[in-house]
Every structure is written in structure tokens, then in C-alpha cells.
Amino acid sequence: MKKILIVNANYYKDISKKLILSSKKKLNNNHVKINIINVPGIYEIPIAIRRNIKKYDGFVALGCVIKGQTPHFDLICSSTFNSILNLSITFNKPIGNGIITAYNTKQALQRCKSSYNKKPNKGSEAANAVISILSNGPKKI
Q: Which of 115, 106, 41, 113 is nearest to 75 (CA)?
């Protein structure tokens, strides 16, 4: 059985709760073992993944960043996303990125709605990406 770690930045608790529920539902439907770690913000996600990189088959990064009046948004998002990508490539482990980047709370809430809406929840999208990579082994032609 595959083991997946959800690393959740719970700065926006109402949003991250919805992302977790959607991600867990998708992962449970695919019969994987799930653990969850909460971190204060998205900037802490890469170090939490790195500390656990050898213990899990894949990771789901969840959280939300809402743009404010300063360049902080751009710097945090860029460095976090680059770090997640580098970890995935360096350690050959799938990391689904379910981090919402939004200009306002309304946009963020639209991206974490329940899965019965027309657009999928970012949590389920990230979980689906990890499941897809883990199940896509080499095939004989």
C-alpha cells in the first residue's frame, strides 16, 4: 500500500480544512495510507516534505496565499513552488501542489469548494496528480 503525506499550511484554517477533506476523499478512494502534518504557512511546506522524504511514496502540499499590498506574495509563492519542484525532481517523488494563490478571499474560497461543483477542488486535483504519477509505471509495448 502506498503511503502519502499531506502537508497542510493551516494559516487560513477554513480554506485548508476544505482542501484536506477533498484531498483525503480522493486518496481514500484510491486505497492509500494517509498521514497529515500541519505547518503554519506555505513557506514551511518544503522543509516538512524534506524531513519526511524517505518515509513516503508521495506528498500533497496544501495551503493558501492571498495577495496583499506588498511583494511578499510573489516572493513566498515563487520560492515555495520552486522548492517543491526541486524536491520532487531531486528525490524522484511526486508532490501534488494544492496551494491556492489568489488575489482575494472570494477567489480562494472558489478554488476550495466541494467536489460537486463544476471546477474541482485544488486539494483533490493535487491528490489526483500524485495518484496518477504513482500508478503510471512503465508499460510493455
A: 41
